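To the team - magnesium ion complex, inputs and output below.
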Amino acid sequence: MGHLAIKNLSKIYGSPDSTGSVVALRDVTLEVQNHQFCAILGHSGCGKTTLLNIAAGFEPPTTGTVAVDDVPIRVPGWQNTMIFQDYALFPWMDVCQNIAFGLEMKKLPTHKRKDITRHYVDLVGLVGFENKFPHQLSGGMRQRVAIARALAVQPHLLLMDEPFAALDAQNRTILQAELVRLWEETGKTVIYITHSIEEALLLGDRCVLMTAQPGRIKRVIDIPFSHPRDVIAMVQHAEPAVGAEPGRSHRCACCEHRAGRREEDRREHRPRQRRERPDDARAARRRHAREAV
Ligand SMILES: Nc1ncnc2c1ncn2[C@@H]1O[C@H](COP(=O)(O)OP(=O)(O)OP(=O)(O)O)[C@@H](O)[C@H]1O
Ligand SMILES: [Mg+2]
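Output:
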């Protein structure tokens, strides 16, 4: 469950004939497989949030369709939950009440709600904070609550709009690793919006690059590495494989390993680590940024 199919999607805000109308998306077609982690990258204003809002059922498309498991999305529902940059928690509810919110909407009995809530409090590492209110939590903890709330309803699709952008670098790194762990444990399909090429490479199975406004799909890159990832090692040791034509494989520059597209190749591959100088890391990031966009 969780196969997303977007077909020929366009979104125009305002009347198409009026001068003030904005073409946010034009002819977007994208497929994301069940259990896939899809990172979407694009400039500010290219329509990323619009795309997620349509996939969540918050906005209707102007033309085209969005379907999850062949069911067209027209209204919001627990099947497609969204996690926002600003957490969007209910300030008058404590951690448990926030997490249980969607379960009440699903009309689950009280004892089940409590069990599920306890499970997700534990999963996101908030044991001991169950009765705290959002204003008593750090930004990272608030986002953990938002993730737990979204996962608790067992959605088919998890839509994340720059969820860690407001966090400091240390918290972001911790939550990125946590997210990968949760994704592997729960097997959800994730659509993850980000401005950061590094974050997209770190998290995504599939990276989608969008053009500037109006947003269109510029390129789809399948990332042939398993998690957990080290972006710098990935770029330096198997650069040719990123963005390569499907079906082609390449030798890793340092260890002669075949960094191909077969699952077993990727699992076996352990690039040799070497101590980075800061200059090397910066140069690798710049080189990769140039090639990816
Ligand atoms: N409700 C709205 N009414 C009119 N125009 C809108 C509306 N929402 C978004 N837009 C316009 O649509 C375009 C895409 O907006 P969107 O928020 O989807 O971009 P984005 O890629 O998410 O940007 P950012 O990275 O800054 O969050 C922008 O030009 C924006 O001004
Ligand atoms: Mg946005």
